[in-house]
Amino acid sequence: MKKILLALFVTFLIAVSATEAAPAALVKQVRYSQTAQTVRLVFDLDQLPDYKISLTENPAALVIEFAGKVDQAVLPAMTFSDPAVKRLTFGGTSPDGLKIAVELNRAVLYKAFTLTGPNRLVVDVMKEYEQKVQEEVAPGVKLTTLLRGRPEGPIAAYLLEIEPKSGWVIQPVLSNDAIVNLETVKSMADRTKAVAAVNASYFSLHGELLGLTKINHTIVSTGDLARTALGIMPDGQAIIGPVEYEGTVVLPDGANFPVAGINQRRGQDSLVVYNSYYGPATDTNQYGAEYVVKQDKVVSIHVNNTPLEPDGIVLSAHGAAADQLAKLQVGDTVRVFQTLGPVWDKTLHVVGAGPALVKNNSVYLSTKIEKFGADVAGGRAPRTAVGITEDGHILLAVVDGRQYGSMGFSLLELALFMQEAGAVQAMNLDGGGSSEMVVNGKIVNKPSDRRERRVGSALTVMPESPIKLAN
Hints:
The protein has 5 helices and 36 strands. The protein is mainly β. The protein has 3 domains: 19-127, Immunoglobulin-like; 132-243 and 343-463, no CATH class; 246-339, no CATH class. An 8-stranded antiparallel sheet has the order 11-12-13-32-31-33-29-30, covered by helices on one side. Strands 5-1-2-10-9 form a 5-stranded mixed sheet, with no helix packed on it. The protein is elongated. It holds the Pfam family NAGPA.
């Protein structure tokens, strides 16, 4: 009796296995149709199989797999005249038997379904789409991830919205807490314990910032032109607009000499002011003169590479400027006057970059006014931007570019995107391979260099009582 029951049980298992096993389907014909939005693929089958579909990026393809085979009358490959879909091929190895690869030129989405009478598997390759995911990454900080397919190509964008009154402040951070040298955005976010960060100002290969920056009421870098900047007031309120630095050194005899810049390489016949945000020393050559000033008094005089201390500044002069300062002696009174204008002098922090994107809720590109060249203004590229909404929320945006999954934005497209996101004021930050967003310690976008680029500064989202940064 036991043997009979065992034999019946085995027979039952074999029957169940045979019933559950996916049948091998025969692909009898492949048809397709095209529109501006979609490429529809139709596979005529003798029976409907269990199938799975996946998107791969390297190589870029939509892969369809199921237990089956292809009728000999079906072409081994199909080529498409389409901006998104390159060709369809049969073959390859798959655990399920048949592997169909739809080779792609750019990122797409898809949907699939089956029909009967006759049996068909239909796959729609969607070139135009929009997929939006929102999440609260911290109380008062919302991240929106947007994947958008457009006729021009795909876009991957990341938008942070910060409510300042919810306990967060926006604060610039220097690479390695100094002007010299460079550092990744993630490293800056990690060491300052920022909940989020994006890249900020333009910078040179040495780390010097190419634009106006102010941290904790102290001007730490300047630009040569009046360009758009983000200002953060002591109460957390943000402003965006053009701002220009003006500095003057007044000598004991009342004569004055213009300051060429703050914490930058000293040029010919110029006077540069260094403070401890620059680094450990001025790193200048021996063809000038440097005066250490504390509390408006000259305390020491050097030739070059003067150490920088938190409680003083260094006046570094060359050529005509050095001649003007040549009579200065230890103990002399020297006053340095600096201004950004009556409104901007009240700011706690400033991050300069540009051009402007949105002004008073209208698209406003100040590219020519601010004398930006093709390296910033030309074509589509990865972009970073900051904006302010009507209710005072801060928007930080990063758009990927120069890659399969995202073609990037022109400045006009970036302006329209920021306006769509609710910005009534917005400006461009550094972009290209520098564009990066870090949230809760993770890089959320895909930098176009395929790795993090070391940059000069970051714009961070910090707790309302941030850690003391240095200097």
